[in-house]
Automatic annotation (TrEMBL):
Keywords: Coiled coil, Hydrolase. Residues 26-74, 128-190 form a coiled coil. This is Murein DD-endopeptidase MepM/ murein hydrolase activator NlpD. Gene3D superfamilies: 6.10.250.3150, Glucose Permease (Domain IIA) (2.70.70.10). Residues 237-337 form the M23ase beta-sheet core domain. Transmembrane segments: none annotated. InterPro entries: Cell_wall_metabolism_enzyme, Dup_hybrid_motif, M23ase_b-sheet_dom. It comes from Baia soyae. One of its GO terms (molecular function) is metalloendopeptidase activity. The keyword Hydrolase applies.
Length: 343
């Protein structure tokens, strides 16, 4: 059983340590912490959504830039075609005049007959109209392309703006989240400190009124029991000595003094604290319900039974986790009980 049980009891005692202090204060602080945590979660969710939005916007922007590039090359092509077409028309017109191909008005009237005139006139007009139409068409295409290009440029600008604003918002959100995280950490630290202070006050206050103990300490479990965990284990968080013993085994006052606290609930379960004067106190935790024999303010003598071993509070481990968690505190600070007691 040895190691397994030892570890289990150590786990228990770590959880006991973390639930110390004023329950009301801890509850309040915990609520605030939960609130902050949920606020942080909401903000993080918002940030994730914004991230997605930014990605979508960037994709859209990319598409638009592509379209703009296409449009620009289309426009360049149109302009080139237009230039060619205009040159062609000019050349044609020039050659028509020089080669007498285009029939000037005078020559039209020189036509041999009306049919000839009409034929020449129709041909000329048709040719000119066709050319004109091609030029107009090209001009139109050019205008449409230009308008489209401008529209795309405007859109791109607008999207750039939105992107910028979204990123700003995102930055602010991230800052907020970081600040919240910091607040939560500070709150946790404050809570720990407050718990410590609360503990100090409740434990140290009665000392002045307490008659001094003998300074000789006796083993607090009748019949001895088995040590399952020592002081300072679990990364230093275990503040006492765990002595396993069968249910209701007598728990004895380690020295004479005055009972300064009898409490129940929380990680310690049923718990007694005895003040021995000179800033020294002993704590007895996980007491079996209905076995407490003393009241606050009552004087006790060394070796007097004050309660029975139990498994109340946070205990786990072999055989129901029955054990005494025994602490020695000097001015409210837990110290190694092995310096004061031995079997
Ligand atoms: Zn313990």
């Amino acid at each position: 059983m040895g190691n397994k049980r030892l570890v289990a009891v150590a786990v228990v005692c770590v959880s006991v340590m973390s639930t110390l202090g004023s329950p009301v204060l801890a509850e309040k602080s915990k609520n605030e912490q939960t609130k902050l945590e949920s606020e942080k979660k909401t903000l993080e969710e918002e940030a994730r959504k914004q991230d997605q939005e930014v990605q979508q916007l960037e994709q859209k922007l990319d598409d638009h830039y592509k379209q703009m590039t296409e449009q620009a090359s289309l426009l360049a092509g149109t302009e080139y075609k237009l230039e060619l077409q205009e040159k062609k028309v000019k050349n044609l017109l020039r050659s028509m005049y020089t080669e007498n191909y285009l029939y000037p008005l005078t020559q039209l009237f020189d036509a041999n007959n009306l049919n000839d005139f009409i034929e020449r006139y129709d041909f000329t007009m048709f040719f000119l109209n066709e050319q004109q139409r091609a030029v107009e068409e090209l001009k139109e295409t050019k205008q449409v392309a230009q308008e489209k290009k401008k529209k795309l440029a405007d859109l791109g600008e607008k999207q750039d703006q939105v992107l910028k604003e979204t990123q700003q918002k995102q930055d602010e959100l991230e800052k907020k989240i970081a600040q919240l995280g910091k607040d939560i950490r500070t709150l946790k630290e404050t809570e720990d400190q407050t718990e410590l202070n609360e503990q100090d006050r409740t434990l140290i206050a009665p000392h002045d009124k307490v008659a001094k103990g003998s300074g000789q300490y006796t083993w607090p479990v009748g019949g001895g029991g088995t040590i399952t965990d020592t002081f300072g284990t679990r990364g230093g968080s275990h503040k006492g000595l765990d002595i396993a013993a069968p249910p209701k085994t007598p728990i004895l006052a380690a020295d004479s003094g005055v009972v300064s606290m009898v409490s129940s609930g929380g990680g310690y379960g049923n718990c007694i604290i005895i003040s021995h004067g000179g800033g020294i106190q002993t704590r007895y935790a996980h007491i079996s319900s209905g076995t407490i024999l003393v009241k606050p303010g009552q004087s006790v003598s060394r070796g007097q039974q004050i309660a029975g071993v139990g498994n109340t509070g946070n205990v786990r481990g072999a055989r129901g986790g029955y054990h005494l968690h025994f602490e020695v505190m000097i001015n409210g600070v837990a110290t190694n009980p092995s310096r004061y007691i031995s079997r």
